[in-house]
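A protein record in our archive is deliberately plain, so that people and models can read it alike. The record that follows is passed on verbatim for readers who wish to inspect the format.
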Amino acid sequence: MDYPSNTRLGRVVNKTRRIALTALLASAALASNYLLIGTANVKLMDLIVFTSGHLQGPALGALTGALIWLVYGTLNPYGFSLPILLATMLGETLYGLAGGLYKGTPSTIRGFSFGLGAVGLLLTFLYDLSTNVVSGLTAGIPVVVALATGAPFTLVHTVSNFLLFGFAFRPLNQSIRSVMNLEDQQ
């Protein structure tokens, strides 16, 4: 049953649905990260966080990204580092913020949106640049060396996100809208 959003009960129901969607998307991103742990830098998390921001606005999108890294960065099979955790949390919030600011309807050619692919590529490049710098500084490695040794991983991450954002954003967004019975804002 739908409640009018201008009633007190409607606002409570809407707030509860937004919290549930944030938890659901954060859980999906975490589960996908652990499932793909063996694939270096090919992750669904960034796309999920971007989509969260698009569906719920920049603040909840950023919160989703921060929550994911709070869990994944703390319970990470590669170990824990506070400076790297803070860098990855901050970097991941950019995906949620950008998703919340993205207002367009992606135009596609054979199901691929070059515009969204470019957004994913740019966000990923910025994310990897900042996290590689922080990782190098944390490990006592010169920044140039950290960037050079991180370059192959950055390449895989940016290309995979270019493809994921370009191919998967639209179906993911539409599926979540349908399942959550969200009004179409596109």
In short: Residues 8-180 form a domain with the Arp2/3 complex 21 kDa subunit ARPC3 fold (CATH 1.10.1760.20). The mean pLDDT is 90. The helical segments are 8-35, 45-56, 58-74, 82-101, 114-139, 143-180. The chain has six helices and no strands.
